[in-house]
Amino acid sequence: MQTPAQPSSTRVKSRSRPETGPDSKQAIKPRHLFSYQPYWAECFGTAPYLPMSRAEMDALGWDSCDIIIVTADAYVDHPSFGMAVVGRLLEAQGFRVGIIAQPAWDSAEPFKALGEPNLFFGVTGGNMDSLINRYTADLRIRTDDAYTPNAEAGKRPDRSVIVYSQRCREAYYQTPIVVGGIEASLRRIAQYDYWSDQVRKSVLIDANADILLYGNAERALVEFAHGVANGRTIRELSDLRGTAVLRREAPPGWTEIDSTRIDWPGRIDDIPNPYDVPHDQITEPDARKIREATEAREAKKDEDDVLPIRIIPLPLQRKFDTDPDKTYIRLPSYNKVKNDPALYAHASRVLHQESNPYNAKTLVQKHDTMDIWVNPPPIPLETDELDGVFDLPYQRRPHPSYGDARIPAYDMIKTSVNIMRGCFGGCTFCSITEHEGRIIQSRSEESILKEIEKIRDMVPGFTGTISDLGGPTANMYKLNCKSHDIQKNCKRLSCVYPTICQHLETDHKPTTQLYRKARAIPGVKRVAIASGLRYDLALKDPEYVEELVTHHVGGYLKIAPEHSEDKTLSKMMKPSISSYDEFKAMFDHFSAKAGKKQYLIPYFIAAHPGSDNEDMMNLGLWLKKHKFKPDQVQTFYPSPMALATAMYYSGKNPLKKVTYKSEAVGSIKHFEDRRVQKAFLRYHDEKNWPILRTTLRKMGRADLIGDAPHQLVPDDKPGRSARPAKARRNARPKRTRSL
Predict the structure, then answer these.
(1) 362 vs 241: CA distance, rounded Å
(2) Concatenated DSSP letters of 159-222
(3) Whole-number Å distance between alpha carbons of 663 and 595
(4) DSSP sequence for 13-34
(5) How far is C-alpha 574 from the geometric centre of its chain's CA atoms?
(6) Pairing of strands 370-374, 397-398
(7) Do the Cβ atoms of 341 and 648 come closer than 8 Å?
């Protein structure tokens, strides 16, 4: 029988060192992910599957779990599933980890299934946001759930992180609760919630959790777990990178950069404090007055006194020397962004500008009487650390308790390989960058090829096809900034918009070489590429495009120009449609050279902020000209924290400096109007012709109604069927002989 968890005084101490601040002269050097002294429970070894029941715990000789992960997805022991990555990583650190997957949430009893964890609960909404998982962009309830056995719907609650955390608190009130995953990550500050059409508080408050881990949280999670195991309190661990915590007030001695407003007051001759200085009238004498007053006030204090909070208006921040390790930016409060959409857009802009882990500052936002402190993002994993995460002993299949039940998400990825993390594209409608960051983290070629061999040897029914080598994008593998010094000072929201940065590495040779080695592995017949292709980058390397087109496209390649009109594309931070035309020419050339007839399948978005009916009409005409008849089309989905969502809610453009008079961005919000924009994408569907005719007439473009090649939809002459002549002929009933 295993003895209870050792008291903190007898546990092995983790030898950690603090990271330096984001702007420190000393280089930021985090502790290696696998350098910690393992927790004492490593003596139990590796579990075949992380246990989901008391019986499995008994079989492993466990009397308790050190950490219990509660997830809204079915437990699949595969590196593409968050709960498996987190669980196996913590297991590798020596902890006993249990899984409670998709528990019933009508009471706290299911959350007691594995007993009380010795250290903490880890709560995640799963690989998808629970609301996006359940509702379409038109707020219709989906009929299936790809992350649930047999795709059964209704196995997770709305706002899973909040519901699960509250039930964990009911089950064991004193046990710390850590929330993470994409659902928590994108709700770390006040955020517009499309489903309730209002701004909600940070999920950390609503969940009544102790700490929030955002992004790919391995560093913070491992340090937090060892810290708690060694008896440290949440307060003592509140400065970890990649975390958000609650404080009642700022610690003494910090400098606050005040970014709570966008309408600084007019010039005042006598300057009693920094708040009275307008950003557009600040002179060097003004700044000198503030500096001298601040320094004099600090000089009067005794050495033993603690310095007070120093407040500097955002426009003055560059006129003061500050300690980056003790400087934070104060965002407009929850109440302000809730009631003032322009301030919401401003807060969104600041948050995105402070996303580079090498120069980001701590962000603070008042929520009633509490402050949300969002520490700087985690330092990206090095290649050997990322390899270590993917090389953990995953079974690469669902937990045996699911029997023969089919889990669609697993079927989709069971023969795919994730080769990198992050995305520097910065598309405003996408939340990948907000979650995983802009710096690309790549695995080694050796680790990737080793995983392909594992798939070949371990996955039942493997047919020889690797379904994907990719990640957030197909072709950003090992594409990083050429200069670390430039990267650590950069605040660009995208490395490829409006143009590809001259400091970005665009040589695809590592990816091309990887493809060639992957398809040469014995037993592998084909390596497909299914991740989204950044085609403007691919244009920089024709050799890569030739390799892709010749060996890795099965007749169709999906890409996402998203729109044809520059006005809308500028709000998406996507390249001009001319880049698509260039890529298509290259794609067709190499397809013909390989003796193949292959096609591009472009994806487009309707109702994106900034896209009006005229833009959608022009997109429809572009589609017809190029003989595209999209079957599946997307309507803009305002996901939490995305820049496009800030445009949608605020009517402002956070890609530029936000003021009350700054650029306005229109958005289509009524479902009927969204349906019109979607109809332009499916101009060929006769069900959409009536609404398109009405819209075109309102726009004064009745000239586009008719049967000519340059016209968008047929006319509606009296007595004429809505269907084309060929369809009408095919629909005529056959003559039958009367009896």
Answers:
(1) 9
(2) THHHHHHHHHHHH-TTS-EEEESHHHHTTSS-EEETTTTEEE--HHHHTT-SEEE-SS-HHHHH
(3) 50
(4) PP---PPPPTT-SSPP-PPPTT
(5) 17
(6) unpaired
(7) no
Question: Considering only CA atoms, which of 235, 113, 117, 99 is closest in space to residue 174?
Answer: 117
Residues 410 and 470: beta-carbon distance below 8 Å: no
Q: Where in the chain is the domain with CATH 3.40.50.2300?
A: 33-240
Q: In whole angstroms, what is the distance from residue 681 CA to residue 58 CA?
A: 57
What would the pLDDT profile of 304-346 be if each residue is shown by its tens digit? Answer: 445 568 888 887 788 788 888 899 999 999 999 999 999 999 9
Identify the helix (H) or strand (E) that includes residue 245.
Answer: strand 243-247
Handedness of CA 560, 563, 567, 572 (dihedral sign): negative
User: Are 145 and 152 in contact, with CB atoms under 8 Å apart?
Assistant: yes
Q: How far apart are CA 424 and CA 493, in angstroms?
A: 8
Please state the pTM of the whole predicted model: 0.88
Q: Give the C-alpha separation, 566 to 577, whole Å.
A: 8
pLDDT, tens only, 139-171: 999 999 999 999 999 999 999 999 999 999 999
3-state secondary structure of 571: helix
Element (H, E) at 362: strand 362-367
Q: Terminal CA-to-CA distance of the chain, rounded, Å?
A: 86
The CATH code of the domain at 33-240 is: 3.40.50.2300
CA angle 381, 186, 424 (to 5 degrees): 50
